[in-house]
Write a structure and sequence with these properties.
Length: 315
Amino acid sequence: MVAHSFEPAYLSLLRSGELAERVQQAYEIMHECVLCGRECRANRYTSKGECRTGSRALLSSSGPHMGEEDPLRGHSGSGTIFFAWCNLRCQYCQNSDISQLGCGQEVEPEEIGTIMLELQARGCHNINFVSPSHVVAPILAAVLHAAGNGLRLPLVYNTGGYDSIAALQLLDGVIDIYMPDIKYADAEPGLLFSQIEDYPSINQRAVKEMHRQVGDLILDEQGIALRGLLVRHLVLPEGLAGTTEIARFLAEEISPDTYINVMNQYRPCHRAHELPPLDRSITAQEYTEAVEAARQAGLHRLDRRRFGRLLISWR
């Protein structure tokens, strides 16, 4: 699917004044926060929520990233902004120093907005918010600042997939490219490995809403993503993620034209060595079977990956 003309979604909201209103709404919700799938209702002005974050975002790092999916990285890289902490507790996270230990620096939204403009000036194809679910309000405020000062790149919402409808409604017309994980087909591994009781139901509801907003992934003439849904699914040992069921969900309840990265880079990290069979990497056969399951379900837009290639931005 190729587009010949493009304007990022948030510019229309900027011109109408709606973007500024969304910022106010997001900060108001944080008095009783439901801005991620946990919906913990913490007052994030006086305490920290289940995400271990107050009203300000913690920035871990930023810069052009050449390890993302081909439609995102292009020839100049995806402009990634990594946020510290996470609303998940994945016991095998490859970025656990960021997601579980909170290694980062507290920043104001205007600082994030300035980074967005710097990434645009460096030629990045998009702005890629990594682990954004718990910092929706600061992100919206940063977009308002950056868009008012010349930002014109697509925005990527690069999430673990445990997102609330309340947050996604605030992001409707702001985010151009949703890139959620679909980690598990069943609740039991979600509880055991990510300490979330209801991951599949919350995740699938969120992915449906994301697709309603942006549709299937649209590319420009150079194959760079402009708008749409791009799904990541990490293959786990012994089929623990439920790849067959996830592929069927995408093909039948989202779209057979869904762009999906069936990810092959699982390796034991963080506390995975304590949780067999997560204490080993996946095999080439397990990965081949997962890709075949996606194709058998009717999915045909698979990101091209060779076995063993790593994407370091995976959560």
